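hey so u asked for the seq, here:
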Amino acid sequence: WDKMIATIKSILLQEGVYYEIVIADDCSDDFNRKKIDEFFKYNNFFRYKIIHLMENKGTVSNVYNALNYCDGSYVKFISPGDMLFDKYSLRDMYNFALKWNAEIVFGDAVYYNNKNGIKCVRTYNHPVYMQPYKDDEQEKIEFFNIVMGDGVTGATLLANKRVIKKYIEPLLGKVRYLEDYFVKLAILDGVFIKYLSRNVLWYEFGDGGISTSKSNEWKKALLLDEGNANRIIVEYAILKNKFYTKYLEHKKNKYFYLKYFKTLIGKFQMLFDRSYSRIEEDISFVEQCFGQGN
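ran it, structure tokens below
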């Protein structure tokens, strides 16, 4: 509850942009709609919808279902415990998307945990190799995303609703948790993705989140999901007659990166020109969301 409220507060604090909130619950045991309604009423906010599924079908199905309730043309996913970075994050992402006519935009995340007080965690970004995005090199973006597996963190995205729906559909019934794989399919199809060079998100690290959790159970589930998702990617690449299909066919081999000069160079670029998350000293916005500080 506390994490969800902190996340919602980070949204309610947004300025300079018109938005709605759609809460999509995937059959949680402790879901309390009345309590959420009371919270919104207390904050005098009424542009929200609540969807509570009676069966847990995983994140991919939950997200796809929630899109049917979204009125806006652009959608921002955010999970309990993650927070928008500051009061202009949503405005800046939306305006950036409109300015560049980009159907998918993303920014940087600051990783944090709140186990013993709010602390930033330094780790490498996703994508690790940022240069193709800074240079708008679509072919390289595609290569590093699809072949090298250097994808964008889904939590940092803002995307066109139509695009999300179109590219999540192939994942339905085959992938449960990796909803951000829709980005790979979109990039494969030539959808324009644009990088906003600014922090847009406080990303909870290693404390219950799917992608950063250390639970062995989650790791096994994600590994299975990743295998299913990658098979879909390979099928799509073959269908589109992509030049790098030969690389994907050998990707399971542990010497994959050594087999081709292009993948070897890509690996070196990811190792020696990797991008790291910033250590943010000003945590006042996070404290405000959690009800701490002044």
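The longest strand covers residues 193-204. The beta strands are 21-25, 48-52, 74-75, 83-84, 104-113, 119-120, 157-160, 193-204.
lmk if thats what u needed
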